[in-house]
Amino acid sequence: MWLDVDGRRFQDGSTRTMVFGVAHLVSYISRFMSLQPEDIISTGTPPGVGLGQKPPVYLKAGQTMRLGISGLGEQRQTTIQA
């Protein structure tokens, strides 16, 4: 998974950068619930989030984000003023 903001790469990671591996997460979650086909386990985000930057980086209105996952596709979003 990768994420660019206005062409600058902030995140680029894979399951190799996860604190806990996929097998561990499935095993742990299975203790508390039955997993079914097509269930989704939200694992968080790769290193590089804006809050972790020095100084922290926050999105501003008009910025464009591109994110993608190899073999799955990509999407583009533009922020707006709320």
Classify the beta-strand content into a percent band.
Answer: 25-35%
Write down the overall geometry.
Answer: elongated
In total, the number of strands is 4
* Mean pLDDT level: 92
Ends apart, CA distance between termini: 27 Å
Would you tell me the structural class of the helices and strands? Answer: alpha+beta
Helicity, in percent? 10-25%
CATH level-4 homologous superfamily: Fumarylacetoacetase-like, C-terminal domain
Q: Could you spell the SSE succession in H and E letters?
A: EEHEE
Largest sheet: 4 strands, antiparallel
- Counting H and I runs of at least 4 residues, what is the number of helices? 1
Number of domains: 1
CATH class: Alpha Beta
Rg calculated over all Cα atoms:
16 Å
Low-confidence stretches: none
The order of strands across the largest sheet is 2-1-3-4
**CATH-defined fold name:** Fumarylacetoacetate hydrolase, domain 2
Could you please describe the fold and organization of this structure?
The protein has one domain: Fumarylacetoacetase-like, C-terminal domain (Fumarylacetoacetate hydrolase, domain 2), CATH 3.90.850. It has a four-stranded antiparallel beta sheet, with no helix packed on it. It has 82 residues and is an alpha+beta fold. It starts with a strand and ends with a strand. The mean pLDDT is 92. It contains one helix and four strands; from the N terminus they run E-E-H-E-E.
